[in-house]
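To close the chapter, one final illustration. This time we ask the reader to focus less on the individual chains and more on the assembly as a whole: which components sit near each other, and how the overall shape emerges from the parts.
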Amino acid sequence: MTAAVPFAPARLFDTDREALRRLVHEVGTDPAQRFVLGPRTAELERALIERTGAADVVACGSGTGALLLALHALGIDAGDEVIVPAFAFPSVASTVLELGATPVFADVDPRLMVLDPVDTQARITTRTRAVMPAHLFSGMADMRPFRQLGRKHGIAVVEDAAVAQGATFAGVPAGRWGDLGVYSFFPAKPFGGIGEGGVVLTDDPERGRRVRLLRDHGQDGSRVSELLGHSSRFDEVVAAFQLHRLPTLTARLARRAAIADRYAERFAPLAGRGVLAPPVGRDGRCLYVYPVLAERRDALRDHLAARGVGTRIYNPVPLPRLPAFAECVPAGDGWPVSERLGRQNLALPLWPGMTDEDVDRVTDAVCEFAEQE
Amino acid sequence: MRTAAGRVMTGPANFSVAAPAGVSFFSQAASFDAVWPAISRHLDELVDQNSFSHGAKVRALEAAIAGWTGARFAVGVNSGTDALVLLLRAAGLRAGDEVVVAAYGAVASASAVLMAGGRPVFADVDPAGYSLEPAAAAAAVTDRTRVLLPAHAAHQLADLAGLTDLSVRRGLTLLEDSASALGMRWAGRHAGLQGRGGVLSFFPTKTLGAIGDAGMVITDDERIAELVGALRDHGRAPGGTGPSLMSGVNSKMDELQAAVLLAKLDRLDRDISVRARLAAAYDVRLRPLPGVLLPTVQPRPVPTTTVVSAYVVAVERRDALVAHLARRGIGTEVSCPRPLHLQPCFAALGGRPGQFPVAEAAAASTLSLPLHADLRPEQVELVCDAISEFFAGRP
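The assembled structure is written out below.
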C-alpha cells in the first residue's frame, strides 16, 4: 500500500524536469566539453563560500568522500585514533579505517543524540589525533566543547555536517566549526542533488588547497602528483543542478522548519505519554529528519503505517556492534545510550512538499497513539 | 569574473568559452546530440524512479556491459580508479603484499595499490606498446609479490601470454588495469577477464564515455563480484538498506551517468570502427615523417582484437610539438608526463632516474593526438598538416 504521507516524497525533483533536461543538454553539448571539476563546479564552490563565509569549499564525490579527504588532509594515518559517535552512519568509522587509522566509538547525548563530549573526553588517549562529531536529524551538536577538547589536547576537529546544510549555531553555519567540515548532496539531504556529491569546508586556505589536490589523485591537472590522492571529484551536471536549486534552498528549509514547528507544538504534551519529540527552542536546529523517541517504537511505527504515514528507523544497531567494525572494538566496551536510541527512534516525514493536511495526518496519528498509552 | 582568456563571464548561466579555431583534443557533443532523445527519456525516468545512484539504470548497464564483454559479472562504481582499489581489495590484497605495475601509465594504477593497502613495485615496459614487459615483471617479483597488475596500452593489450605464464609459474594473481581496453580481446576473451578480474573506466574521453565519472569492475569470479558489490555501498549487502557487513566506501555510480552510457552503448561498435578508420588516416599521413614513432601493433601468439582508445605517438621534441600544436588551436594530451617511479607521490618507494629506461623515454616523448568518434577526417588532416609543418621547420 502506498503511504498517504510517505516518509520521503515520491518524486524529489518532479518540478525540475525541464531544468534537468536543459542543464544536461547544455553540459553534453557545451563546446568546452568539460565534465568533471569544470567551471560549474567552481561556481558552486564560490556560491557556497559566499553563503557560509568559509575560506574554501572544495567539491568532491560524496559526503563520505568529503570525510575521507578531510581526515587525509589532517594527516590521519596508521596508528592514529579518531573518536567518533557510536550512533551514526557507518562513514564516520569506515573513512577512518580507510586511512589505516582506528575509530574509537563514544556514546551520544540521550536527548540530542549527538556525540557526548564527556564520553569523548574519557576516551582520549595519546594516540588520539581527531574527533568527529556528527550533526544528526534535527539538531546540531554543540561544537564548543569539542573545540575546547581539541585545543586542550592538540586534537583536530572534523565536523560531519553532512545533513546540516542551512543550520547555524551561535550565528556560525554548520560546517564552519571544525578544522574541516563536510556537507553531503545525497538526494535525500536538505540540499540534495541529482547524483552523489559533497563538499569539504574549511577556514584554512592551505588545508583547502591540500583537499583540492587529494580529491584528484594528488594533482592539479598537470598529471604530476605531489601527494598520494583519491578519485573523489565532482560532475559538472551535478554542479549545474545544484546551482539551479540553490536559489530555492532557503525557502525549502523554511518550509521544513514550519513543519517541524507544527510537530513540536502538537507533540509537546506527549512527553509523558510515551512519545518524546526533540527539544525546542534550541540553537543549532537543523532540518533533515524529525525523530521522535518512543518506548513502544515498533507499535508506533505500525500504528502510523496503518494510518498511511511512512516512517524510518535510523541506526538500529550502534556502529561498534556491526560486523563491519567488530574488529576495532575493545571487549567489554558499551554504548548504552546508542543502544537505547537505536531501539526507540522513529523518524517522521519531513519534506518541503508536504501539505498542511499531510502534516495534520501525521500529528493526528501520533497523538492518537499517545492517547492510547 | 574574467576567465583565463580574458572573457568576462556574464553570470552563472554562461559557462561556454568559444573553442578557438582548430581541433580540440576531445569532443562527444555530436554523439551526445545523436542519442539525445534516448538520454532525454532516461532523464524523465530518473525523476520518476526517484533514485539517483546505484539503482535500476546502473543494474541495466551492468547487465548490458556483462553481455557485451562476455563477463559473468559487471559491478558499477564511481570511477576506474575506485574499480581498481575495490578489485584489489576483493582479490584479497593484504598489508605488505607487493603488486607489480608498469612504470609508465596513469598514477592511479599504482596509487590504487597503496589505497588498497598494498605496495606497488615498478617494472619497465615494452618500447612499442608501453605496457608491462613480462621479463621485466619477472625480475621484479619477490617472495612478497601477490599480484601482477598490467595496464593495457592505448591500442593493444599487454603481452598476456607472457604475463599469464609468469603468474602461473610464480603463483601470482593476475588482475588487469583494463580501464582503457573496452573492446579489446585476447583469443576471443575480453580484456579484464584473463585473470581474476579487471576494470573499465567510463570517463568521458574513453571509448565508451559518460558525462562525468563512472567505472566498473568486470570479472568471472563470483566472490570478487560479491565483495566489490558490497564495498562500493558502505559494505552493505545488495538492497542497500541492511547493516554494514564490512567496512566499505561510497563508490556508487550515478544513475544519470548509467543512463548516458546506456544511450551511447548502441553506438559502441560503430564508434570503435570510426576510431580505427581515423587511426588509419593518421598512419597514412604521419608514416612518411621520420621524426614520429607511430602506434604499432605487436604480433601476438593468439588472435586479438585491437581498439584505438587513444592515438599515442612518440617524438623527440615532444614539449615543443605540443606547444606548436597548441598555437594552432590543436589540443593534445600527455597522459604520462613523468614515469611513475619518479612521481613525487611515490617518492617514499625509492625510485631513481635510470631505473626504467623505456618508461622514462616514453614519458619524455609520448603524446596523444585527438582521436574520438566525433572527430572528422578533415580535422585529422589539419592535425597532420600542423605536425608536418613542425618537422619541416616551418613555424
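Chain A touches chain B through 68 residues (CB under 8 Å). The first helix of chain A runs from residue 17 to 29. With these observations in hand, you are ready for the problems at the end of the chapter.
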